Structures are given as C-alpha cells and as structure tokens.
C-alpha cells in the first residue's frame, strides 16, 4: 500500500537547528571491524535505523556477540561487539548496500553455510564483482544470475572457516563498496589481501578512504598505492568509538536553507572527517550559500537570495546527488551534475528517478551519458514517487518546501538511515518561522 505525506510548504526563510543521527557508513564499518576482533569494542551514539539494525542482526546471525543497550535517546545508546569464530547463518540485507556487500567476505571466512537475500530492490543492485573476487580467492558461492547474467542476490556462501587471501583484481566501477568489502575483511585472510582495481575509475573514493581510516584506527596496517590497496593480516581492535553525525543526511536540512533563503545549523559537525557528505558545504557555497563553523562544532548555512547553477563532477560524492538536484531545480539557470553513472546501482536507478520526478513537477531534466542536466522552470505540485529510496524521499521534501501541493509517496522509506525524518523536517519548518 502506498502512504501519502503532504510535504510541508514553506517558501519563506526556514530558520532552525537540526541534530542529525549517526553516520550510516561509519556505523557499517565499525560493526564489521569490531566483529573481526575477539576483544570487545564499544560503539557509542550509534545509528538507530533500518540499515544499522540489519547489520547488527546479520552479525548476530553469524555468531558475533552484539549487545545494543538503548538509552533514552540514541545518543545515549551503547553497543558492545565481540567477535570470534563465525558460523553460517541466514542474512537479510534489506536494501543496504553496506550489508549486501560487506557481509559476504565475512561469510566466506566463517565455518558453515550462509544465505544472503534482501528486498526486491536489492536483488537488482550490482553484486557481481565482489562475488567473483571472493571466488577468485577460493570461496565457494552459489549466486542467482541477474538479467545481465551477473551474480546477484540471493546467494549462498559455503564458508570453510578461513581463506588464504593474497592478490585479487576487481572492476569496482559500479560501486566502491566492492573494494571496501574486501579490505574490511582483509585482516582475517591468512596472508591479508591486495586488491587491484581494474576497469573505469572507482566512484565514491572518499568512502574507500573511510574504510582505510577505520582499519588503521583498529590497529591494522593498510598500504595504499594508485588503484591498489594492501591490508596486512592481524586482529583488529576497534576499541571505543563515538559515531559522527551523518553529514549526507544533514544535507537535506541544509538544502532547506538553500531553497528558502533561510539559515540552518547542524550541531556536532566534525572538524575533521572522512565522510564525503562534508563536501556539501563547498558545493552549496558554489551555489551561493554562506557557511560558518563556530568553535563549539556548530555549522551554520545561510541560503542565498538567488541560487547559482552548478556544473560539478559528483563522481566522488554520488550519494549527495538527489539533494543537490533538488536545489538545482530552483537555480537561476541550468545545472549539469557530471559523472554519476554509479547512481544506476543505488537504492533505485537514481538517474532515471531524478529525471522522472523533476519532470513530474515541471522542471526540465535529462540524462546525458553519465550526467544529468537540470533546466529550472516554474514548478507545480504533484504526487512524487520515492522508489523505496530514502534520498528520493528527502529530495521530494525539499521540492515541496518551495512548491505547494507536493505529496510524497512512502515517506517512511527514510527509515533506511533516518527513521524520524518526517518529524525532524516538520520540526525545522515549524520552528519559530
Ligand atoms: O561504503 C559506503 O558506505 C558507501 C559508498 C558509496 O557507494 P557507491 O560507491 O556504490 O556509490 C555511497 O554512495 C553509499 O551511500 C555508501
Ligand atoms: C547509495 C546509498 O546507500 P547504500 O549504502 O545502500 O549503497 C545511499 O545511502 O545513498
């Protein structure tokens, strides 16, 4: 059944502050690295959302101890993770790229049989290169073939209790997560792992740097050379970590200031971070924003009177595209968002989804190769589709802020990474405006 959410309409300046939940990408890496160590690790201020709940359950099903103590708010939650020899299990990956890509290498190292499946949308997400790489490293995997004849979910992995590791080549042009998956499990291969990227340039490189950073933080030696990463064998110990807020999920709230000429603050914005979402501030500055960070960790963005069009290569920060596209729909001229072919394998084909939904509200939009061109025009309300994609839901909310009559289908799809999005959005829009 389709639920309908009338998007709040607030074309006058939105002013307020929003605390955003923890980073999905850091959570996934902390979970995996903690699970590969036998000493307990502690994850503080974690993300309470569908992706992180699925990862916690996937690890438990493989025999990892995951104790999630709930505080009054998620900022007070504490998770204790203790790994050990893993056994096989049944895993639901939902629509989480991090679960469907990061868990198979663990299953290949476990003793026993693991079956991994997910939502209908997960079955069509690219999966082949990680399956082929694990096979090349000696893992036995039965995978379903997708329409292109590539390995896809559901799959069964027959874990042998360990793998030798060594060198492997991979075409990771469809997702950086294939390489991250192999590197994260790397310390537990007998000889570690060396991953060589073949094929076109890997997207979302900052996410690879995040993977390397988390491994190093856990005491693992990682060597990086152009297109080659080596993880030495060892026992990772993550220790205690506090998860940063998710900066890609902060982006829609900053976009609210962009499209209304308002002012939005995000507390706990990290001074230094590996999150690609941090780049949203420079991108919005190019579109006319004024951004200020105060020493107490609050980042404030003031939206411009007129939004400048943007011509930018988003290959490294693909997950920001829907948010940027929504803002570009209100720019003073055409924008071109370049080099984002990887979006075809995200929660939905986001290039097609952005083109379709912008067109639906009257904005010019067309895909040219791996770029999307956005030609603003007077927009009108419509019932907007979200394709089970959390970022298409927040995209529609941004459009609805400035254009009346937008109704968003299945806003609850934001539960993937931000379950309280509707209340947070209403709270910001209604705050003393
Ligand atoms: O490793 C990660 O946590 C992620 C990597 C990126 O995936 P792609 O490389 O498939 O774009 C990003 O878009 C996704 O949201 C999260
Ligand atoms: C691409 C994304 O998610 P996933 O981790 O499922 O790939 C995303 O959150 O934008």
From TrEMBL:
It comes from the Bacteria. It catalyses: 3-phosphoshikimate + phosphoenolpyruvate = 5-O-(1-carboxyvinyl)-3-phosphoshikimate + phosphate. InterPro entries: Enolpyruvate_Tfrase_dom (IPR001986), Enolpyruvate_Tfrase_sf (IPR036968), EPSP_synthase (IPR006264), EPSP_synthase_CS (IPR023193), RNA3'P_cycl/enolpyr_Trfase_a/b (IPR013792). Catalyzes the transfer of the enolpyruvyl moiety of phosphoenolpyruvate (PEP) to the 5-hydroxyl of shikimate-3-phosphate (S3P) to produce enolpyruvyl shikimate-3-phosphate and inorganic phosphate. Keywords: Amino-acid biosynthesis, Aromatic amino acid biosynthesis, Cytoplasm, Transferase. The active site is at residue 319. One of its GO terms (cellular component) is cytoplasm. 3-phosphoshikimate binds at residues 24-25, 29, 175-177, 204, 319, 342, 346. It is found in: Cytoplasm. Phosphoenolpyruvate binds at residues 24, 97, 125, 177, 350, 391, 416. Its main location: cytoplasm. Its EC number is 2.5.1.19. One of its GO terms (molecular function) is 3-phosphoshikimate 1-carboxyvinyltransferase activity. Pathway: Metabolic intermediate biosynthesis; chorismate biosynthesis; chorismate from D-erythrose 4-phosphate and phosphoenolpyruvate: step 6/7. This is 3-phosphoshikimate 1-carboxyvinyltransferase. Belongs to the EPSP synthase family. Monomer. The keyword Membrane does not apply. It holds the Pfam family EPSP_synthase. The keyword Ribosomal protein does not apply. Residues 10-423 form the Enolpyruvate transferase domain. CDD domains: EPSP_synthase. One of its GO terms (biological process) is chorismate biosynthetic process.
